[in-house]
Give the backbone structure.
Amino acid sequence: MKIVAFDVADYEQSAFDRWKQAEALELLCLSDRLNEKNAALARGAQGVSFLGHSKMTSPVMEALRTQGVTFLSTRTIGYDHIDLAAAKELGLRVCNASYSPYNVADFTVMLMLMLLRKAKVSVIRALVNDFSLDDLQGREMRSLTVGVIGTGKIGCAVIRNLSGFGCRILCHSRRENPQVQGLAQYTDLDTIYRECDIITLHLPLTESNYHMINRETIAKMKDGILLINTARGALVDSEDLIRALENGKVGGAGIDTLEEEEGVCHVRVGTTILDKRTLLYLKQFPNVILTQHYAFFTREAAQDMVDSSLQGLCAFACGKENPREIRLPD
């Protein structure tokens, strides 16, 4: 089987090198982002693997189809960069990647603790030899109620992490996860908005939950609510979040992924003048921790994503069940 991997980053190379030893696999690794112009590089390949920088639009997939490609695999959990309707029309099968949930779960709790203890202000003060305690009084997790929206693998791991802090944990998901039993209480979203001191998001992005955190839902929350997003940027309306930070309704935000991050996150911009006004404004708040969409970024996760991506393509080619296959729209 021939596979062409696009978007290959330096940190993935060792994982791909291990796969190159497989006798039944012809693997070509390219650093180029996949697009309509270079799709011909996949000629003769059954499958292609790519990262989120490669936008799988209908023209790109049509170009791949003409080269003989029938299987697509993204080395990301999210797949909103793939036009699934076009993939179905072209007869392409699509799968995503997976990795252990502990990286994002640990990062999520770290953001909570940093916001509770006002770590951003403390660190910045220390850089200029200001070791005062003014406005640095924090809160303890054990006295708070935390809401976890989404209880898949990552949300469940967050709940397990939080269970050691002694806080009250509420959660919400389309389907209840039996692993949560005894650790958290399932409830509706309005109850989470009304009763929680911290809310953390662990959902894929869909049409139904786009901008689920907005002016109306924030208004239902406690004054001083802390919001954490390590899932998908477009779950949160950034402009509504900014207004809520400005008027004090939101007491702080831990943001690892932002709707306006395209073209900035995972890119070395150098001295380029950025036009990401929302991103630049958000990062200046003393009670906002904004990171570069890297909650997932561990050595273990990079290996897992390469492995699961290539395993998915091989399963397609061998006619085996692929647990990571993405259901295409009806």
Summary: The radius of gyration is 21 Å. The domain at 102-290 is CATH 3.40.50.720 (Rossmann fold). The chain is about 30% helix and 15% strand. Residues 299-318 form the longest helix (20 residues).
